[in-house]
Amino acid sequence: MTNTASPSTGKVTGIIANLAIIKVDGPVAQNEVCYIQHKDTPLMAEVIKIRAGHAYAQVFESTRGLKVGTPVAFQSHLLEATLGPGILSRNYDGLMHDLGTMDGIFLKRGDYTAALDKERLWQFTPLAEPGAQVQTGDWLGEVRENAVPHRIMVPFKLEGSYTLKSIVAAGEYKVEDTVAVLTSEAGREIKVTMSQEWPVKQAVRAYVEKPRPSKLLETGVRTIDTLNPIVEGGTGFIPGPFGSGKTVLQQAISRQADADVVIVAACGERANEVVELFKEFPELEDPWHPGRKLMERTVIIANTSNMPVAAREASVYTAMTIAEYYRSMGLKVLLLADSTSRWAQALREMSNRMEELPGPDAFPMDLSAIISNFYSRAGIVNLRNGHSGSITFIGTVSPAGGNLKEPVTESTRKAARCFYALSQQRADSKRYPAIDPIDSYSKYLEYPELQQYLAEAIAPDWVDKVGRLKNILLRGKEAADQINILGDDGVTVDYHLTFWKSEVVDAVILQQDAFDEIDSRTPLARQKYMADTVLDICELQFQFDSFEGVNPFFKRVINQMKQMNYSEFESEQFRSFEAGLKEILAERKTD
Amino acid sequence: METQAFQRVYTKIEQLTKATCTLRAQDVGNEELALVHGRLAQVVKIMGDEVTLQVFSGTEGIPTNAEVVFYGKPPVLNVSDDLAGRFFDAFGRPIDGGPEVQGEEREIGGPSVNPVRREQPSEIITTGIAGIDLNNTLVTGQKIPFFADPDQPYNQVMAMVALRAEADKIILGGMGLTNDDYLFYKQVFENAGAMHRIVSFVNTTENPPVERLLVPDMALTAAEYFAIDKNEKVLVLLTDMTLYADALSIVSNRMDQIPSKDSMPGSLYSDLAKLYEKAVQFEAGGSITIIAVTTLSSGDITHAVPDNTGYITEGQLFLRRDTEIGKVIVDPFRSLSRLKQLVIGKKTRTDHPQVMNAAIRLYADAANARTKLENGFDLTDYDERTLEFAKAYSNNLLAIDVNIDTTEMLNTAWNLFAKNFSKAEVGIKQEFVDQYWVNA
Known about the structure:
By secondary structure, chain A is an alpha+beta fold.
């Protein structure tokens, strides 16, 4: 799509909701971007079908008042993200327009603000020497972006090998200043600035290889880290009916996870939830970089549910492209999308408008392929310079009617490696986070690479302990079923003990108060300590004459351990609750 | 909406369906209004010079030589302070015998608020109903529906909430309201001496169903006027959104669109979100809070309308008849206010979150005990006590006839805890237990 002599133009000949049909006077490409000049307002649109000399374009705005005959200017490029220093801490719409610099209370059509601040000066430090042989994605220089080392790279669009002809000296430059000149093998000179464009629907491939992930990504959420861990460069998804705590969980991960850059794509969700991020992240401390605010490492892509539907699809791709850009700098990126179901619905609306034959639930036939293609863009990569970077991607899915056998959930299940099923039943009984410990899984736990890492980073027998915890939960569930069928006194006391031991695991490890300052984030060392404590209790033999004493006793045990969770780790308070716990246990313990 | 002299009149309709008509016309804008045979219609599709119009009241009796006049603009509402105290139809025409409202003409269904210009909701809305204030606290700028079966008293509860909520303006958007319910609202507002704070847009069951589609946009345009231009706290009541969705499905069906789940259009989520997302808190102090009603068919929340609504709104309120006490309560299990975290323990006493959760957990234990009882098993002493607690909790706190302030609700809960349980059984953070436990 490069070097088209002069872009085509066209005229609108038909309008159905946000689909515009355009008669084109020259060449036009699938997915090419165009602007429909409605009076003084340019309306951005993307070609999604071409038929009999007409381009069918989805308009990223309301088409109210649009008339046939309106002129259209094609852009000779696909939907692109502008990449460069100054992306972090910014709030973008789905097409990467800066929401912060738009005028007025309302989103006005055609108010297309620039993604980057073109006036700001950045302190540039060269990293490469003239004469160096470079390829796409190689690092040429560096600026400090909110304390994140932001590498200025050979533009992703350049293919083949180049010689670095010149590079500017360290100093202050704007994003559009030329900082380096490259010479191609054919002798052509290319000026490189600190910003570049990349078509969002294509994966950036500026890396050598994608190895299997092997390192745990700490989220501070016990039921994830301990039971079903996600890894750096891993993929996971969180399906759950409304009210089961998807967003609260995802926001907890976005605050707490051990990442250099966090990108949140709010895709077709509630505006007030995004406002929460806008308002709180500039105030909250980054738990991994003391003294810095969360917002400094965060980018928010907001295409809330009331914003134009067509831009919803773009928003997740924009977010992924920004993630790939930072990954190429050797950084640890976490990408969260809430919710991918809204994106799928946007696809369905367009597919319907174009009168395509529908697949299951009226979704487009290629939904599954689109989803797995998107998930495959995550991962850990080894760069040419020996560094590595990663994108960990966690998407939420909002299954219609809470039914996990619907097309979006099923397609995602094939693509993602961690499955965090939120259970309505747990949510109803306020057991948050409502991740079902038995249905959920992390495929990574089976990776020998991760097992080895966990053995070194936490404890040699850690994976074994995780298995024991899961086993206790499973046996507890079975015991509960038996008790429900046969009655409290229809089973032996052992059943009650088995059940209540699983309740200890549930209450102390699985349940976590996302709104409590201390309990909300549990570092790995503390998770190990609590897991060990719980396992020790589960190993104990207790003496009870009848089942009636079991419930009150374990309630006290749980209460005591919850108080431990609420106290600062290893503080005096923590120790005193722990001592209290030992006393309670001693009452019933037998050897 | 007078027609103007220079407007071109068309008299040749080429195609008619139940809800739409198609004719050849030039220079027509998308979503523009038109008058077809004296009936209001809106442009929904343009293909070359072929324009398709959706006729709100249906096409019955429209001849092919009917007069079609284009207005050159989408539906509008005249906004000014004179809206207050008035009743309008779905097109914004007075139905109370009063004069047309003079004021600035605004397009309805306007653009969305830039999310970065929103303020985080932080002002509590108190209703005196503990099932709401204690367990599902409402906040200005929130959007929340009642999920209710048609036989439940949702209109009564909503009117009660509206009047107690201390809003500057209450805007009622009635869709498919029965005439009786319309008169009920009118009477309740009049009796409360609140008419000067009320604006109503009403489509009753006597009006054509497709007209309903304009009601929420009318109501929300009026709401935006008061919230932005006047910095007022506006409460919008939308009832019944299920009937609104039904109208959507009628239109999409007549437009030959492929239906998705439950015969609803594939765009249902976006259509509903566009309305509900008008709920907002502005920096300057104005706010729009939306309380809606979504009627269910025999409690089924997996149906496309309540399901999509649940994903859009910030929680939902369920009403249920508690047979133990013979009163209607706000169901603590299925109800949820997502924004409560922004105010509970912050604008209310600090023990609020923990007390709320503990009470619900114990109430859940009672439900388990009841199941045991029904299955013929013996109850433990603890089971007995939870049942005792549940009854009192239901009667003194969950019932919708409770009207007390939040601190009193918390004190009531602590009393019930101490009366029925030990400290460990209640399981609240030690510092609150030390402070509030009621020693017998």
